[in-house]
Amino acid sequence: MARPGEEGLFLDLKARGTAAERIEELFPPPSYFVAYVDGAKIQNKAGLMDALAAAFRFPAYFGKNWDALLDCLRSLPDELPAKGYILAVRNSGSFLFSSPEDLEAFADTAGEARAFLSDKFKALFVVVLL
Question: Which domains does the chain have, with CATH numbers?
Answer without folding.
Answer: 10-129 (3.30.370.10)
